[in-house]
Amino acid sequence: MKTRHLGVWPLACGGLLAMNGVAGAQESKPHSVLLEEVIVTAQKRSENLQDIPVAVTAFTADMRDLIGVETVQDMTLFTPGLTYNSSLDRLNLRGVGRYTNDFGSDPGVAVYNDGFYTSSTTSGSKSSMFNERVEVLRGPQGTLFGRNAVGGAMNIVSRRPTDVFEAELRAGVGNYDAWKAEGTASGPINDYMRLRVSAGNYIQEKGYFRNMQGGPGEGGVEDRQDYDVSVEVDIGEKVDLYMRWYRGVWDLSGRSTASQAPYDYYREATVPGGRASLVPTASLGPSATFNAGDNLIPAVQQYTEQLPGNDRRLYNTNIPSRQTLTGSDTYIMHLTWHTGWADVKYIGGYSDYVYNSITDYDRAARDFYDYIPPASAVNPPTPSARTVRIWGHAATAYKEIKEYYSNEINLTSTHDGPLQWIFGLYQFHEDSEQPSGVLNAMQPELRAPFGSAPNPEGWYYYADGVLDMDSYAAFTQFDWQFTDSLKAVIGARYSEDEKKGYEHHRQIFWNPTNLTAFGTVNPAVQIVNAERNVENKWSGWSGTAGIDWTISDDLMSYAKYSRGWKGGAFSLGTIAADYEVEPETLNAYEIGVKFGSDTLVTNVAAFYYDYKNLQSPISVVQETGPNVNLYTNLDAESMGFEVETTWQVFDPLTLMLSYAYIDAEFKSGCGVSDNLDLLAQHPDAVPCGPPRLNSNGTVLSQGQALEGNKLPAQPENKVAFNANYRIDFAIGSLNLSGTYAWRDEVQSGLFTREYRMAPAFDQVDLRATWTDVKERYEVIFYGRNVTDEYGLDGVTADRQDDGTILQTWSLTPPRTYGVEFQYRF
C-alpha cells in the first residue's frame, strides 16, 4: 500500500529509454544547473554568492524546477538553520523567529519582495514562473535590510521583463484532485519599454485530512489565483524605471492540524453500533458543557476503540475550516539614476488585503445536545424544569485587515576604487485591525446574555485590536579593500519604531451546569467588557563589522560581528496586565569559509548568538477563569555550525548536501508557569520563585526556571541530501533527482517536555524530468514524501478535565505525486 504508486518511475524511465537505446548521443553538457554561478543582492548589490561574507542559501528558478523546491516548507529542507510552521506562518533561523502571532508583535525573520517589506512568507512559495530567485540570509541583516531582520531575511526576486520575446505555459495534475495552469509572456514593447505578464490558477479538491463526520476533507484544499504584471522603462540613458503589480486571491480549506491520542472518544448511545465523535473537555467556551454526564440527552459514553487504521489525519467536526484572501493588491516601484560614480535608487511599495479564517472550535460533530439543569429556585423541578439545548456549532473566527507602505532611497557607489559605500533612508507605515474570538451563532442564550448588551453574533469571547505603526531608519555601510586579498566591512543602522494601539475585549460566561450562579435561567452572563488605548516609541542601533580574506580565486573566508535589533511590541486584544515588551537585541559572532570551483562548491559557517530580551508570551494561572498569557522578555543563546556543498562527481552526476547543528537554549526566566505542570512536578521541572496562591491560600501554580530549556522550533540536527543524474539522448535528456531529508525532534513550547516535542522525521522526494533537445518543453514526473511519513511542524498540548494530555499535531503534507508539462515559445 505504501509503495504501489512508485511504479510510475520504472514505466516513465523505460518509455524514455526506448526513444533512443544509446545514451550519450547528445552533446554533453559541461556543467550542472546546481553549479551555475548565482548572483545575489544580499548586500543591495549584484554579487556572486561565493564572494560575499554572508551565509546565504539561494534557490534559483532552474534549481527549484530541477529538484522540486516548490514551497517555503521545501526550502527548509536545504537551508541550514531554517524552520517553518505553515499553520502559524512563522519562520525561524538559527533559533531566532517569533513565539507569538499576537497582534502588535513582529516576526524575527524579515521577508522582502523586490525590496519591499512584508510580514508574510506567502510570496516565497510562489511558483518559479513568478520568482526568479529566493535568497535566505542567515544571521542579523539589520544594517541593510533593517526592519525585523534580527534573525535573518528572506529576499525574493521576481522574474523581470526581457529584451527579447519569450513565453511559457505550464500545466500539471496530481493526486487529491489537484491541478494547475500557469502562463507568462515577456518581451519588448518598443526600444525603451519591456513588459511581463504572468498568471496562475491552482486547484485542489480533496483534502489531506478526512472528516469522520462525512463532510468534505480539509488540508491542502485550495482555489487560488496569482496575477503579476511588471514593466521596465529606460528613461533616457541614465534613468531606469521598474513597476510591478501583483494580486493573490485565495479560498482555502487549509487544515494542517489534528488532535492525537489520548483522545476522548464517545459513542452516541442512540446510534446502533456507535459512531465515533470527538467530544472535547477543554475549558473556555462551550466545551465544558459537554461534561454534564447523565444529564445529556441522548446520553454518551466513553468510546475507547482505536480509530480505523490509527490514521493521524482524521478529525470529526461539523464546521468546515475556511481561509479566504480578498482585496489583496501589491504595487512596487524602483527608480534608479545611474550617475556614473553612484546609483541613486528609490524603492517604494504599497500593499493591502483582507484575510478571514473560520475553524471548528468545540471539535464536536453533533449538531446539539439537550441538557436538564439541576432543579433550583430559578429552575423548578420537573415537569416545568427548563431544558437547555447546547448547540455544537462553536467556531474560532479570525480576521485581518491590513494596509502598509514603505519608501526607501539609497545612494550606492559604482566607481572603481578600494572604498565602496552605501547610504540610505527608510520609512514604513502600517494600519491594521485584527478582530478574533470564539462564537456560536446558533446559541440563543449567547445572543442575548443576561443583564448585558445584545450579542447578535453569539460571541463567547471577542477581542479586537487596531494598530497604527510607523518606522524610520537611516543606514550606511563601507567596504574597504585595503590589500589585494583583505577587505574590511563596517556598517550601522539607526531605527525608530512607534506603535499606537486600541484594544477591546468582551467575554461571555456560558455554563448550563451552573444555572443558579447568577439567579437566572439564562446561563450566559457577560463577565468582561473592557477597552483601552496604548502607545510607545522605541529606538535602537544595529550594525556589522568584519573582515574578508580572499585566499585564492576559489577560496575566501570571513569573520564578522553583527548586531540585530527588533523594536518593542504589544499584545493587543486581551487587556492583559503585562502587554508590552522591550526591543530585542542580538549580538552575533560568525566565521565562515567559502570554496567554489567548476565542479565543487562548499560553504561552512560557525556562529555564536547572545540573544537579549527575546519577546515571548508566558502563561499565568488565575484564581478564576482561564489562564492568561502575559508578554515578557527573556534571554537566550544559540551556537552551531552549518555545511552546504554541491559536487559534480562526474559530468552526469551531481550531489548536494546540507547539514546544520544548532544548540539553542534559554539563559533566563524565573516564575514561568507550565499550564500542563502547574505545580512543577515534572522530573525536569526546576521550581523558581514564590508559588501563586488564591484567596484561600491554596497553591494555584508554582513557577519554574526556564534556563537550560531548548528554544522552540529549532531542531538540534537537520540534514538533506540530493542526487541528480542526467542521461543524454539524441532527442533530449532525462534528469533523475532524489532527495532524502531528516530533521531532529523539535520543541514546540517554552519548556523542554515530551508532551510538546515534535518527533524526528524523514522525507524522500523523487523527480524525473524529460527535456527535449531544443529545450522547448519539459515533462516532469514527481513524488513527494513518497514513503508517506508523518512530518511535524510542531505540537501543541492541552490538559483535559480528566487529567489526560491531548496533543495536536501540525503535519506536513502526506505523499503526493503527479505530472507537469512545461512549454516555452
UniProtKB/TrEMBL annotation:
- Note the topology in the membrane: Multi-pass membrane protein
Q: Which residues form the TonB-dependent receptor plug domain?
A: 49-153
Q: Does the keyword Signal apply?
A: yes
Its localization reads:
Cell outer membrane
The record's similarity note reads: Belongs to the TonB-dependent receptor family.
**UniProt name for this protein:** Iron complex outermembrane receptor protein
Which source organism?
Povalibacter uvarum
Query: Which keywords has UniProt assigned to this entry?
Result: Cell outer membrane, Ion transport, Iron, Iron transport, Membrane, Receptor, Signal, TonB box, Transmembrane, Transmembrane beta strand, Transport
State a single Pfam family of this protein: Plug
By its UniProt entry, which Gene3D superfamilies does this protein fall under?
Answer: TonB-dependent receptor, beta-barrel domain
Which InterPro entries does the entry mention?
Beta-barrel_TonB, Beta-barrel_TonB_sf, Plug_dom, TonB-dep_rcpt-like
Which residue numbers delimit the TonB-dependent receptor-like beta-barrel domain?
A: 292-786
| GO BP terms | iron ion transport
What cellular-component terms does GO give this entry? Answer: cell outer membrane
